[in-house]
Design a protein that fits this description.
Oligomer: single chain
Number of domains: 1
Radius of gyration: 17 Å
CATH superfamily: Alpha carbonic anhydrase
CATH architecture: Roll
CATH class: Alpha Beta
Distance between the termini: 33 Å
Structural class: alpha+beta
Order of helices and strands: HHHEEEEEEEEEEHEEEEHE
CATH topology: Carbonic Anhydrase II
């Protein structure tokens, strides 16, 4: 119980960079996905990053043994508009203007940003995907996050992702305005898995209501390559579920 309270305390601190619409991934001590600063060492970075090693509800997960349940439908009220695309040193991220929302039952979240990982961070029965996009939302009432994950596979071109790929800032820290409709990065059906977890980057705060869409989207192999030329591998390995239930919509 005391450890859980400690983690919640870290969560409130770790949320602040997101509230300011900055990348959580870019804050704090230097970290990476390999070597002495890789995932196995994130918990020793100091400051608020201890949750990366002592947390019991860490993400991502290998999605297996999910339990079917009557879950609320996901309602996306995402707006097309002018956003900002940035290379933050860990991924390509799109910071969204206010107004785009995700509703799940009685929970309402506002989108802050979305960003990409290669390969996918979540696995499904041990299988990974070429990429995964995470749409990060904040619940204004509770301060917690609702993150929608969508798998990406190589196949037919996706116009939205192609437009982003053409605009990827190459230099770390570079940013530029972009017109974007995030609805182009989700599949037609929104059946999903859900579980309680964490940010997948330091400070690994356990404040995330994860929703992972079952159906992947297809994107052009050439566009995946444009991302992996910048970030060949930026995925935290799947972690232990620690008796958490993973629920699946019917």
């Amino acid at each position: 119980m005391e450890r859980r309270r400690f983690i919640k305390g870290l969560a409130l601190i770790g949320l602040c960079p997101l509230c300011a619409r900055a990348s959580v991934a870019a804050e704090g001590a230097h970290w990476s996905y390999e070597g002495d600063h890789g995932p196995d060492h994130w918990g020793a970075l100091g400051g608020d990053d201890a949750a990366c090693s002592i947390g019991s509800q860490q993400s991502p997960l290998n999605i297996t043994g999910a339990i079917e349940a009557e879950l609320p439908a996901l309602v996306l009220d995402w707006k097309k508009g002018r956003a900002e695309i940035v290379n933050n040193g860990h991924t390509i991220q799109v910071d969204m203007p206010p107004g785009s929302k995700l509703v799940r039952g009685d929970k309402r979240f506002e989108m802050l940003q979305f960003h990409f990982h290669a390969p996918s961070e979540h696995l499904v029965k041990g299988k990974g995907f070429a990429m995964e996009v995470h749409f990060v939302h904040k619940n204004a009432d509770t301060g917690t996050l609702g993150v929608l994950g969508v798998f990406m596979t190589s196949g037919a071109a996706n116009a939205t992702f192609s437009g982003l790929a053409d605009a990827f800032p190459v230099e770390e820290g570079a940013k530029r305005p972009i017109e974007i409709d995030p609805n182009g990065l989700v599949p037609k059906t929104l059946g999903y898995w859900t579980y309680e977890g964490s940010l997948t980057t330091p400070p690994c705060s356990e404040i995330v209501d994860w929703m992972v869409v079952r159906e992947p989207i297809q994107v052009a192999a050439a566009d995946i390559e444009k991302f992996t030329k910048l970030y060949k591998m930026n995925a935290r390995p799947a972690l232990a579920a620690h008796r958490r239930f993973i629920l699946s919509s019917i």
